[in-house]
Amino acid sequence: MADDIEDVFKKVSKLKVAVIGDIMLDTYWWGHVERVSPEAPVPIVAVDKKEQRIGGAGNVALNINSLGVKPALLSIIGDDEDGKQLKRLLKDQGLNDDLLYASKERITTNKIRIISRNQQMLRLDAEDVKDLSSKEEEAFYKLAENYITSQKPDVVILEDYNKGLLTETLVEKIVALCNKHNIVTAVDPKRKNFFAYKGVTLFKPNLKEVKESFHILTDEVNENLLNSIHQQLADKLTHHISLITLSEKGVFFKNEKQGRIVPAHIRNVADVSGAGDTVIAVAALLYAATKDVDLMAQVANIAGGLVCEEVGTAIINKQRLIEECKLLLSH
Asked: Are 185 and 202 in contact (CB under 8 A)?
């Protein structure tokens, strides 16, 4: 298996991929604190540095881009300066912004983090989280429909951050359209529309999300429990594959033929931010290229572990992932 991993990534590089979901701007202000404000009992942060990054569904697109595939990114931004900045950042990464819908009704999501001594002191969220209006939902669906029917991607990743873009109606219509054209659909869900993703190919929640959705209170993690969770998901969603991330315990995958826990490899974990984005990107591409669910889970598990060794939201390095797969899959 390890000897074939180069060939697998050659297949991956030939895929046509779309990411549909909530894009956001991640803003970081780094500074230092030397005194308390005379106006209120709060620290004064003297700002030393500012940085802005592409977040949300855009981070999934960046991971795909790093794996040698140019993704189409379909999302919604506001007709504002933050939206223009996101477009500039996408162009800097060599990604197209022509499938971003500029809303007159919403603002661009911007999460501003204020950090001192490597600790987050405050986060400010500028965002609209209400569902799209029927008018904008229809306009966005037409954008997605035109892309999917004309380009016929190999895989569509639905990346939901509960920001109002992926409404239940929109999800239903996009999944039906993909199934009509035999396009693989992969989903990274959030709690609000957790059970809206009926009929998808790959459903990738984390264990916490699943337990909350089914009101599971036990802290145990074993294959009997996870098999039961998969069956409950399948009864509601009629999807094909469950891929449940288990944090430091690895990942669990299951379809109608096979399933197991793939244990995590020992890592020096620095930060888990963005690991889920990497896992869904790698899993969707590996499955679309090979249809091998066991290999998909193993490689996605390795990729998620690698990005946890980096501080902050990290992007997977293709060559490092290939080398790590050669090393770990040979055992």
From this structure: yes
Q: Which residues of the chain register pLDDT less than 50?
A: 270-272
Name the active-site residue from 26, 82, 131, 277.
277
Q: How many domains does the chain have?
A: 1
Tokens of 330: 């040979």
Give the residue numbers spanning the domain of 225: 2-24+55-109+128-328
Catalytic site residue 277?
yes
Helix axes 5-12, 318-328, angle to 10 degrees: 150
Coil/strand/helix, residue 89: helix
Q: Is position 30 within any domain?
A: no
pLDDT tens digit string along 21-43?
999 999 999 999 989 999 999 99
Q: Which H/E stretch holds residue 102?
A: strand 100-103
CA distance 8 to 125: 40
CATH number at residue 164: 3.40.1190.20
- Structural element, H or E, at residue 43: strand 43-56
Residues 6+ apart with CB under 8 A from 307: 274, 275, 278, 314, 315, 316
